[in-house]
Amino acid sequence: MRALILPLFATSVWAQLPPGNAQGVAMGHLHMLVRDPDAHRKIWVEVLGAKPAKAGPMEFLLLPDVVLGLRKGEPTAGTDDSMVNHLGFKTKDLDKTKADLTAAGCKVVREMPATRQAFIMFPDNIKIEFTEDKTIGAPITHHHIHFQSHQEDEMRAWYAKTFGAVPGMRARFKAADLPGVNLSWNPADTPMAPTKGRSLDHIGFEVVNLEAFCQRLEAEGVKFDTPFRKVPQLGLSIAFFRDPWGTNIELTEGLAKLR
């Protein structure tokens, strides 16, 4: 019976975004602009266990608490010196994750043995931090988005006001929490580069009743690059805008239905 129960449990974990907060907002997706989507897909699926899913003609990759999107293109640069410095995931077995990713062509760029953490550079210079946590319910789970800003306090306050993120601290980092993601901040001496056109092109939040949410933001002065619209062929509603520091953000409604 145990052998039958575990796969069913794994399917429900891998395929579900968390419920939204009081404003209806939760972690949604991370969208990467990469030279060779197949190479990235191979790493995420074969090494890290992401599950492919379709929204109309578009393929996404599912991990616990996050959806990944890959688009072929020529990125201007990687995550270093960008508003989003790196992404963070938890792993049950850091040594295995490091070994498997290294064998797949990724490079370990920094290790912190005392805290069981490692930074690994993926193709197109996408930097990802892995932290060992043997208590998680899947081999890999999403954990955080790490910004780098010369205005940490202002950014954190903006994400709290705009999305209902709960301010706090994560170890020594100023942070704010949304369902499915911790938002963290590194200090920077100067403004960082906007994310649009880089290998991590944008981050995404899933929002319940997205049209009303966008109307509220517009009333508060937010200017949308792509106003709210429904995309029937994908089964999604979407909108794009940028935070005041240049982080490209997509809002979606419908990604939570992917299985």
Alpha plus pi helix count: 5
Stated plainly, the CATH topology is called 2,3-Dihydroxybiphenyl 1,2-Dioxygenase, domain 1
Succession of helices and strands = HEHEEEEHEEEEHEEEEHEEE
Our estimate of the beta-strand percent is 35-45%
- As laid out across the biggest beta sheet, the strand order is 2-3-4-1-13-16-15-14
CATH architecture: Roll
Span between N and C termini? 24 Å
Q: Find the count of extended strands (DSSP E, 2+ residues).
A: 16
What is the number of independent domains?
Answer: 1
Look at the structure and give the CATH class: Alpha Beta
Query: Approximately how much helix is present in the residues?
Result: 10-25%
The main pleated sheet reads as:
8 strands, mixed
Radius of gyration (CA) equals: 18 Å
- Please identify which CATH superfamily we are dealing with: 2,3-Dihydroxybiphenyl 1,2-Dioxygenase, domain 1
The low-pLDDT segments are 1-15
